[in-house]
Write a structure and sequence with these properties.
Number of helices: 19
Shape: globular
Helix content: 25-40%
CATH class of the largest domain: Alpha Beta
Structural class: alpha/beta
Strand order of the largest sheet: 1-2-5-10-12-13-14-15
CATH superfamily of the largest domain: Glycosidases
Bound molecules: 1-O-alpha-D-glucopyranosyl-D-fructose
Strand content: 15-25%
Oligomer: single chain
Length: 562
């Protein structure tokens, strides 16, 4: 495999609105990010992905962009952005922005011009399609609920929006539109950006016949995802974009891809793939419920198997980007850990099994201190457009208010969007003003300041993990070594070996997700402990040497050089 500059890097996602507010408006900003670069450097972060910071009406928190060349005033100025780039560079860190080009905002000048002249050239930047029998062109339900079509005022046409109606889909079949997008991408790369996280990109290819599908819900609509699953040809668009942009700059690209067709992994992330990498959502998909508002609990064995399958599928092809959580997903500690493991030991265990997998680790802000989901008493306490829609759908389907709120507690995207917990002080040190979204009240216990003081905190442990992963001795093994599952017969053990390509020492990563202690037989008594979350390393060492065994308490994890 040809080595790339990003293969051995550790990435961190910042959700700017909730990261750190320095001007007291209750919204995080670029100054806040600049002031925390050293914090991130110490955490072992190389690549920083910023969720959208472009000008936007924030209907979908910046994923509705009204000017791709401007920084949202809420976040700061272009000068501050340039300063961020320069400060990151000084620290040998890389900045990656969010590329949201399946759609823009209805406030973007392209869309305004399109509405002003629905027969003009800008209408062709979007999908303005004639209705059928006085109704929408097809029965698609948007990702956020309701029809994916909205009437174009004064015409018999509708425009397509796979997400909110304020996020009209861009017409990628139009070469002029594509040129505009490529120009914009290159403009940012010229500035010194290292690359992009690419939003919802699979959706850019449409079936231009827009066929209706069998309804799959009481609303009589069919998820627009059906069209995405059936249509062919997204690869040509993605290749075109790559050649015209990323490739020229050796940029790092990480794609958000759901609903890829079987056997397309090589085309997406192989050596000459469309992208550098793409997120592995396979474990997250396990908890998706029958409908948009429900979720299923995690089944440990199914979860373990899913992760290993995904590792295996990727080996020899490329790298996936491993995440526990992001701004769209509930907090990992609340989702993947059984109740009895939702403590510091459990959070370190979850981190160990994820960060040391083969692939590019992404840490989402607050994950490094073990932030959790947040319970709310009323739907008015949520801000997210998707959560509010899910809540309403749940109520319409007959759920009680309590049941619907319980679903929000488990699934809401706002779980991950509560402000970063920097300290136990006012507003968790996030803002001197009123935070745009209420804090998780547990900030008095879970916060950076407290954990920085403590050698045994989740934060300190994350630092050790990233340092181990990137240490000169083991970097190659953790980057390129195979991931081979171990102890699969043990019901509650998550274990794998990272096997170096050159046949050198293997590294065993083992974790006990069970409630009781568990002893594993080792192949040798010479194993060296590289990292563990249990206090008693001396006892562990003795046991390995004398009995060739490793006993892990409940939520115990250990990394051993075999
Ligand atoms: O998400 C795309 C996506 O398909 C989902 O994760 C979606 O957010 C979820 O199904 C709705 O509940 C990306 C962004 O990550 C997300 O924040 C944006 O809202 C979305 O695209 C639109 O830009």
């Amino acid at each position: 495999m040809k080595k790339k500059w990003w293969h051995d890097k550790v990435a961190y996602q910042i959700y700017p609105k909730s990261f750190l507010d320095t001007d007291g408006d209750g919204i995080g900003d670029l100054r806040g990010i600049i002031s925390k670069l050293d914090y991130l450097k110490e955490l072992g972060i190389d690549i920083i992905w910023l969720s959208p910071i472009y000008k936007s009406p924030f209907v979908d928190q910046g994923y509705d962009i009204s000017d791709y060349y401007k920084i949202a005033e809420e976040f700061g100025t272009m000068e501050e952005f340039d300063e961020l780039l320069a400060e990151a560079k000084k620290r040998e860190m890389y900045i990656v922005m969010d590329l949201v080009v399946n759609h823009c905002s209805d406030q973007h000048e392209w869309f305004r011009k399109a509405l002003a002249d629905p027969e003009g050239e800008y209408a062709d930047y979007f999908y303005f399609i004639k209705g059928k029998d006085g109704k929408a062109p097809s029965n698609y339900r948007s990702y956020f609920g309701g029809s994916a079509w909205e009437p174009v005022p004064g015409t018999d046409k509708y425009y397509l929006h796979m997400f909110a109606k304020e996020q009209p889909d861009l017409n990628w079949e139009n070469p002029r539109l594509r040129r505009e997008i490529y120009k914009m991408i290159n403009w940012w790369l010229e500035k010194g950006l290292a690359g992009f996280r690419i939003d919802a990109i699979i959706n850019i290819k449409k079936d231009l016949d827009f066929p209706s599908f069998e309804p799959d819900g009481p609303d009589g609509l069919a998820s627009c995802v059906k069209m995405v699953e059936e249509v062919q040809g997204v690869g040509e668009l993605l290749e075109d974009m790559k050649h015209e942009t990323f490739e020229k700059y050796d940029a790092f690209t990480v794609a958000e891809v759901f609903n890829m067709k079987d056997d397309e992994l090589r085309e997406f992330i192989g050596e000459d793939g469309h992208f550098s990498t793409m997120f592995d959502f396979s474990a997250h998909e396990l908890t998706y419920g029958e409908n948009r508002w429900e979720s299923r609990p995690i089944d440990f064995k199914e979860w373990r198997e899913t992760i290993f399958e995904s590792q295996k599928e990727t080996e020899g092809i490329g790298f996936k980007a491993n995440i526990i959580e992001n701004h769209d997903e509930p907090r990992g500690a609340s989702r993947f850990l059984p109740e009895y493991a939702q403590n510091e030991a459990g959070k370190k265990m979850l981190a160990t099994t994820s960060i040391l997998l083969r692939g590019i680790p992404f840490i989402y802000q607050g994950q490094e201190i073990g932030m959790t989901n947040c319970r709310r008493k009323d739907i008015s306490e949520y801000d997210d457009i998707s959560t509010i829609d899910q809540y309403n759908e749940a109520i319409n389907a007959g759920c009680t208010v309590e049941e619907a709120l319980e679903c929000c507690y488990k699934n809401s995207r706002d779980n991950a969007r509560t402000p970063m917990q920097w300290s136990a002080g006012k507003n968790a040190g996030f803002s001197a003003g009123t935070p745009w979204l209420a804090l998780n009240p547990n900030y008095t216990k879970i916060n950076v300041e407290e954990q920085e003081k403590r050698e045994d905190s989740v934060l300190s442990y994350y630092k050790k993990l990233t340092a181990l992963r990137k240490s000169p001795e083991y970097r190659e093994t953790f980057t390129y070594g195979k991931c081979v599952p171990k102890y699969e017969d043990e019901e509650e053990i998550f274990a794998y070996c990272r096997v170096p390509e050159d046949g050198g020492h293997q590294i065993l990563v083992a974790a006990n997700f069970g409630k009781e202690p568990h002893t594993l037989k080792l192949d040798s008594s010479g194993a060296e402990i590289l990292l563990t979350n249990t206090a008693d390393q001396a006892d562990m060492k003795k046991e390995i040497q004398k009995k060739q065994e490793l006993t892990l308490p409940s939520c115990g994890t250990a990394v051993l050089l075999l």
